[in-house]
Amino acid sequence: MYDPAKKKMVCLSCGGSDCQELVPSQEPVICINCGSQIPYTEYQSAGRCPSCGTYLLRDDKVNYPYGADVILPFKISKHEAEEKLRNEFGKKLFIPGTFLSQKTLEALKGVYVPFWMYDYDSDVAYEAIGTKVRSWTSGDKRYTETSYFDVGRSLHVNYEGIPVDASIAMEDGIMDLMEPYNYKELMQHDNKYLSGFYAETYNMPPNEVEPRAQAKAEKANRDWVRSTTTGYSSLTNERFRNNNRLTGTKFGLMPVWVYEYRFQGKNYKFYVNGQTGKCVGTEPKSMSKAVGLTALLFGAAFVLLDGLSMLLGVL
């Protein structure tokens, strides 16, 4: 499997490096180690044998036309991801006793999430009427002066690699919260990075999810305009024209640690950015712990008041 710390393939049996073996996939997918059938989903390209734990890649899902162009290899190890989760959520009030226990954290798995990355050549034009208001007092009179300005801005920018996740299973909002990744560390894809992890190929073609990339580009353009039109009391008659011309797409894989915890019939999912360590999720709350803590505080307060009343009675 690929070791993020050593940045190379490491054999879990002998400790050797870069001694992996290429075995053609078959249907159904059979584990080369124990012979068990591995249940792969429609878009899954890398996974783990549920019987012996061996990680396998499907060569029919990691090569053309499904293979990735670029990849951000995992930098955060599983142990480091566990510590990130404990630091982020472990001290929250009323969490269940088994939450983030060593046993439940065995379910933590590294997943490469598929992304489409879009390049745009963008032109932006903005026009508005801006006002500046100043007031002053002279004698016993108050004066106000309003000045009007024609405001115009134009921008030409090249966007490279605007990311949009292409996984149906992964919530779009969650992946947006996982950002930003440091895309300067993108590397040419090599299948070795998938070993020891789960992975998907893209679930949707690039044209299907491109509107989300267009929306990101437009937001970036509007943010730029806003940053250059400060200092006015108001802006009216605003006209914003935005033209994003697609110049290229790439298929990339981004690293995410996924932890799923089930509590009182509900699934709670937590995510750790496999490159930066950023955590996303909402922790469960144990009502029994909340009631117990409330009772404990009430009891302590009662004892304190009772002791205080006895002391006052003695005095």
TrEMBL record:
<keyword id="KW-0812">Transmembrane</keyword>
<keyword id="KW-1133">Transmembrane helix</keyword>
<feature type="transmembrane region" description="Helical">
    <location>
        <begin position="290"/>
        <end position="312"/>
    </location>
</feature>
<keyword id="KW-0472">Membrane</keyword>
<protein>
    <recommendedName>
        <fullName>TFIIB-type zinc ribbon-containing protein</fullName>
    </recommendedName>
</protein>
